[in-house]
Amino acid sequence: MSVDTVPAGKGGPTMEKPPQTKWRTPAQEKIYGQKLLEAIRTARDASQPSRPCPSRAIKDAADSALAHAAWGQSRWSRAILSRQWRKRKLLLKMGGKIRRSAAAAARRRTEKSVPFPTVVVPPGEKEEKFRERLMVLSRLVPGCRKLSTPTLLEEAADYVAALQMQVKAMRLLADRLSAAALTQDQS
Question: Where in or outside the cell is it found (predicted)?
């Protein structure tokens, strides 16, 4: 893999460009935008039409659209898709209401934590702080709790790029909807 560099000034150091990911292509943004709009419409139809859609439903719809746009090629997208599938399956099994059993809650509390993989870092407080930060990062990225450090960093970079595209698409959608509302108010 080659690294593109951009000159910072005459004879000065060079700065690396951020790597081009699949999330930064216009085609991928268009696909995600379409899936996001479809998912939000579905979430809105599922809630009562007279009231606005709850924010949790919007978040779930946006995450689901993001995972579908990734086509399950990364761990985080597969984790989101499987979570949605399990939730839907449980909802159907329980007759439309999601119920959590006390036994499942107890199992979640008593699950043994897996030691985080070791990394070559200078010994002392820095190593402990580094491990803590890796633990936090592994909890933030869906499906990445038990990964090695290089794989975790790669998945996190892909997830952040996807989230940046999600923010861009949602901002564009919000701008268009507010502009449409303004034109309706003026007429």
Answer: Nucleus
